[in-house]
Amino acid sequence: MMQQHRSNSYLFGGNAPYVEELYEAYLDNPGSVPDNWRTYFDNLQNVPATDGSEARDVAHAPVVESFAQRAKANAFALKASSADLEVARKQVHVQSLVAAYRNVGQRWADLDPLKRTERPRIPELEPAFYDLTESDMDITFSAANTYFGKSENMSLREILQALRETYCGTIGAEFMHITDQGQKRWWQQKLEAIRSKPSLNVVQKKHILDRLTAAEGLERYLHTKYVGQKRFSLEGGESFIAAMDELIQ
Description:
By secondary structure, this protein is an all-alpha fold. 50% of the residues lie in helices and 2% in strands.
């Protein structure tokens, strides 16, 4: 065993770089290494490969050098076309438009049934604010972060219509100040899935009308029974009656 160790001492791990350099030179030109090393490397060629193939070893140095040169030349960099970059830029602007409606859409909501004043113009709710033009209206964009329910891809025209129906209709929803992300997503899903227009059957509508009529009747009774007494009126808060009834039920 000791004799075998002495005969192979040149294969000690510390000599690995030197041996690898000799082997690389042998693979490139067998005549460039000393005879004893050439004989040793010739014998290695008869050792079966680990994958069972009969392929001979290939010098690594040229391969490594080739990759190094390609890296310097930036040959592996992904080349994105200008068209792809433009689509990606517009997609980001569409997401900004969606975020704007969720944040300030209630400021443009149609909350005045008598139309006494015009709704204020809000630039952030206009596509032009994000460099989106009329020619972009029929381009399909990803709507995966919305709950409009049609599909993950919608045209800009469809997205804009859905946003205005949801956040600028007769219901003004202000919830983006909530810090809990789960609660915000809950509001987004509840509002966007139905475009802020709940679907009520006849029985539900009659029940709401009954509750509102009862509240209005109590209001008139108190006004007649206790004339001049200080009290809190339901005027302007009738919708709160239906909301509280739904929560209690």
